[in-house]
């Protein structure tokens, strides 16, 4: 038996299976993507196995009621019905378990811990919004979500923020007093600010470039009832807080991140359950230790000074002005810019970020360390805070 055929090839992972039949298999690759570009020119050895383990670990941990029953939530969230459900059932998610290259289950136990890069999941439908150009602007149509589908991806990235680290995009939006009020802020935040209860923002998931949304826009395009939207916000905050505690056990700070959800079945009141989907790991989270980034932010920091990044931003601007989808074509064909390869030291350190976090988590929670030869996280931090490599 071998893995089923690829039905979708993403920039970071492949989805294998038979259309509409459970299970699907997420095959995590060593590829990486930043700034919505898609596959970048390098690969990061060990990244696929690291991400597969972390996806399984976090889904498994959050999905167990026992990991919620004695956890103390902040008083602002402690009385919510959502927390009661978590203590009874855990987080509903679509992960079924790790599988090997022959699609056979690979249960992880204290006595057995072996790298795998494939995670079996229950499939959910994805309804891509229609698009058209009106008056030179690209317009997206989410009418299909007003029909309130079930077993379907929520067309939003749900972003949580515990603070404002250097480079946070939050500062680009909080010049608006109205937006600050939406987030529950009495004034605009500054770099270094932290929040005991994470802020929640929403952006589009299924468009060619992510765009941030007001709460009303997010609820509207996704076709969420008031109760569904409330539960989405509370559930996001609780999961984020639980993850923050997990990372603290390995000496890592969780600053922000994003989740994806799917609609489940309707209850007797017509509100749909929410299921955590996709994956959770350094690609979805901003993790910091000793002032060093242990996530894709380290890669972004390498590329921001390059001519390619400046061209990418210009290409996105031109695409918006023209009402075009394909800003990547503009960058490559018109501006003649493609991403450079990573400096060798940056590439090695990025590999050790993924493997080092997987090693620390598996040792802490599974009793045996995955990637035993990977750097310890303190070594990764030491390397990251050394003299920065020059880029073209």
Overview of the molecule:
By secondary structure, the protein is α+β, with helices and mostly antiparallel strands. It has a single domain (6-384), classed as ATP-grasp fold, B domain (D-amino Acid Aminotransferase, Chain A, domain 1, 2-Layer Sandwich), CATH 3.30.470.20. The chain has twelve helices and 15 strands. Strands 8, 9, 10, 11, 12, 13, 14 and 15 form an eight-stranded antiparallel sheet that branches. Strands 1-2-3-5-4 form a five-stranded antiparallel sheet, covered by helices on one side. The protein has a two-stranded antiparallel ribbon with strand order 6-7. Helix 1 runs parallel beside helix 11 and helix 11 runs antiparallel to helix 12 (377-384).
Task: Furnish the topology, listing elements before pairings.
Layout: E1 6-9, E2 13-16, E3 24-28, H1 47-63, H2 66-69, H3 75-78, H4 81-89, E4 95-99, E5 118-121, E6 130-134, E7 137-141, E8 152-153, E9 156-163, H5 177-182, E10 194-204, E11 212-213, H6 215-222, H7 226-248, E12 253-266, E13 272-277, E14 285-289, E15 292-293, H8 297-303, H9 307-322, H10 327-334, H11 344-366, H12 377-384
Brief description of this entry?
This protein has 392 residues and is of the alpha+beta class. It contains twelve helices and 15 strands.
Q: Averaged pLDDT, please?
A: 91
CATH class: Alpha Beta
- Helix coverage percent of residues? 25-40%
CATH superfamily: ATP-grasp fold, B domain
What is the CA-CA span between the terminal residues? 46 Å
The total beta strand count reads: 15
What's the alpha carbon Rg, rounded to whole Å?
21 Å
Count of individual helical segments: 12
Largest sheet: 8 strands, antiparallel
Residue fraction in strands: 15-25%
Examine the coordinates and then state which fold CATH places here, giving the name of the CATH topology: D-amino Acid Aminotransferase, Chain A, domain 1
**In the residues, how many domains can be counted?**
1
Low-confidence stretches: none
Q: Spell out the helices and strands N to C.
A: EEEHHHHEEEEEEHEEHHEEEEHHHHH
Structural class based on helices, strands and sheet pairing: alpha+beta
What is the level-2 CATH architecture name? 2-Layer Sandwich
Shape: globular
């Amino acid at each position: 038996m071998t893995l089923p055929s690829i039905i979708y090839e993403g920039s970071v992972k492949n989805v294998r299976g038979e259309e509409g039949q459970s299970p699907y298999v997420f095959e995590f690759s060593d590829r990486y993507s930043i700034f919505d570009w898609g596959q970048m020119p390098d690969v990061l050895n060990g990244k696929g196995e690291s991400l597969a383990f972390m996806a399984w670990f976090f889904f498994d941990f959050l999905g167990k009621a026992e990991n919620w029953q004695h956890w103390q939530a902040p008083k602002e969230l402690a009385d919510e019905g959502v927390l009661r459900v978590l203590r009874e059932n855990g987080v509903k998610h679509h992960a079924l378990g790790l599988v090997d290259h022959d699609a056979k289950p690979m249960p992880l136990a204290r006595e057995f811990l072996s790298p795998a890069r494939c995670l079996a999941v229950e499939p959910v439908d994805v309804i891509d919004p229609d698009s058209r150009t009106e008056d030179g602007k690209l317009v997206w149509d989410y009418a299909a979500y007003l029909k309130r589908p079930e077993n379907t991806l929520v067309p939003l990235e749900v972003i949580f923020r515990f603070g404002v680290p250097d480079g946070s995009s939050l500062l680009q939006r909080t010049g608006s007093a109205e937006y600050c009020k939406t987030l529950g802020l009495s004034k605009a935040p500054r770099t270094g600010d932290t929040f005991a209860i994470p802020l929640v923002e929403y952006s589009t998931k299924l468009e060619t470039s992510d765009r941030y949304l007001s709460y009303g826009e997010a609820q509207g395009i996704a076709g969420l009832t008031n109760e569904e939207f409330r539960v989405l916000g509370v559930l996001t905050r609780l999961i984020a807080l639980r993850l923050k505690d997990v990372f603290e056990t390995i000496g890592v700070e969780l600053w922000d991140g994003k989740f994806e959800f799917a609609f489940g079945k309707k209850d007797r009141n017509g509100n749909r359950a929410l299921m955590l989907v996709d994956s959770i790991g350094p690609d979805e989270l901003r993790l910091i230790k000793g002032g060093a980034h242990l996530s894709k932010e380290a890669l972004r920091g390498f590329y921001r000074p390059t001519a390619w990044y400046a061209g990418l931003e210009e290409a996105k601007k031109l695409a918006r002005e023209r009402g075009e989808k394909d800003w990547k074509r503009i960058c490559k064909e018109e501006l003649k810019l493609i991403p450079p390869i990573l400096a060798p030291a940056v590439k090695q350190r990025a590999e050790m970020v993924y493997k080092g976090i997987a090693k620390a988590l598996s040792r802490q929670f599974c009793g045996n360390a995955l990637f035993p030869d990977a750097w310890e996280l303190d070594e990764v931090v030491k390397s990251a805070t050394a003299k920065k490599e020059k880029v073209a």
